[in-house]
TrEMBL record:
<keyword id="KW-0560">Oxidoreductase</keyword>
<comment type="similarity">
    <text>Belongs to the nitroreductase family.</text>
</comment>
<dbReference type="Pfam" id="PF00881">
    <property type="entry name" value="Nitroreductase"/>
</dbReference>
<dbReference type="InterPro" id="IPR000415">
    <property type="entry name" value="Nitroreductase-like"/>
</dbReference>
<dbReference type="GO" id="GO:0016491">
    <property type="term" value="F:oxidoreductase activity"/>
</dbReference>
<dbReference type="InterPro" id="IPR029479">
    <property type="entry name" value="Nitroreductase"/>
</dbReference>
<feature type="domain" description="Nitroreductase">
    <location>
        <begin position="12"/>
        <end position="188"/>
    </location>
</feature>
<protein>
    <submittedName>
        <fullName>NAD(P)H nitroreductase</fullName>
    </submittedName>
</protein>
Length: 208
């Protein structure tokens, strides 16, 4: 695992999107669970954690998913595909979230009640589009964290936004409160990734 700033830098620099996977390599479910558990330490708006995951590692199911994902090869050859969903009704978890913090001793009871009240006063009244934007942003944070953790553990990933989200929701019985955001293929690379470049820093950053 990542233990120093130098090793973190190496993980970031070495992570590339991989589309060719060893179809015979299988990552144990327990190891996938451990990576997800660590990824979920990512921050989120009001700590409401509006992410849900569907891990697809069954071979026949991956073949079905491949068709939904416009026949992208990595869906079938990777060890697993992790579908990241965003919860547009994330506020319904508010009592569970803040009571957990209270029971852990991180906040007092008065703060807990105030946070719950403030969340219930604001989030349910926000437009669905605004809540969807929050969910999309937060799932982006947890997705990037997951990909770095995977790389630190010796695995490769690629994100896929190109899939039929309606068909995905129908096939995997996704309730309406959850929106499919991205698919992440996870496995062992069978070929080197195509490296990419980045635009110059001076074109991207402005100090004031």
């Amino acid at each position: 695992m990542i233990t120093t700033m130098q090793s973190l830098s190496e993980v970031i620099r070495n992570r590339h999107s991989v589309r060719k996977y060893d179809p015979h390599y299988k990552i144990p479910r327990q190891e996938i669970e451990e990576m997800l558990q660590e990824a979920m330490l990512a921050p989120s708006s009001s700590n409401l954690q509006p992410w849900r995951f569907i891990v697809i590692d069954d071979e026949e199911t991956k073949k079905e998913l491949k068709a939904i994902a416009y026949n992208q090869e990595q869906v079938e050859t990777s060890s697993a595909v992790i579908a990241v969903l965003g919860d547009i009704e994330m506020y319904k978890n508010v009592e569970k979230v803040y009571r957990s913090s209270y029971e852990a001793g991180f906040i007092d009871e008065e703060s807990m009640n105030k946070l719950i009240q403030n969340t219930n006063n604001s989030y349910p009244n926000a437009p669905v589009e605004a809540r969807a934007n929050i969910a999309s942003f937060d799932t982006g944070l947890v997705s990037m964290q997951l990909m770095l953790i995977a790389k630190a553990n010796g695995y490769d990933t690629v994100t896929m936004g190109g899939f039929d989200k309606q068909k995905f929701a129908e096939r995997f019985d996704v309730p309406e409160r959850y929106i499919p955001i991205v698919l992440i293929a996870l496995g062992k690379a069978a070929a080197p990734a195509h490296k990419t470049t980045r635009l110059p820093l001076e074109e991207m950053v402005r100090f004031i």
